[in-house]
Amino acid sequence: MSLLQARKKRTLAKLGWVCAKIEEILAGANLTLSDVKLPESQTPGETELERFQRFKALLSETLAEINRGEARTCLGCQQPIADALLDEMPWSFRCPACAAD
Question: What is the average pLDDT across 61-81?
Fold first, then answer.
């Protein structure tokens, strides 16, 4: 299995998990999301459902890039984002140096 195929498989798994959590929220389940590592900080007034929907959109964009065969570049420095970071957090749009700024 190629690196991109493996990343696609992990991203699809995360997307499935996020979709399941959205369904639980919509069904009125009482969830504690403190253990969920979502990208970026929560925006003021954002609900848990909105946060998961934003996370889902980021994962969907990642899958679209993988399907197009595109490499992700940092929105800050325009350098390629390391494969190791994308394997761990496929929704990353900034390299660690730019994310720290």
Answer: 88
Q: How far apart are CA 50 and CA 10, in angstroms?
A: 22
Q: How is the chain split into domains, by residue range?
A: 3-29+45-100
For 34-83, the DSSP string reads TT---SSPPPTT--HHHHHHHHHHHHHHHHHHHHHTPPPB-TTT-PBPPH
CATH superfamily of 3-29+45-100: DksA, coiled-coil domain (1.20.120.910)
Distance CA 25, CA 67 (A): 29
What is the value of pTM for the model shown? Answer: 0.59
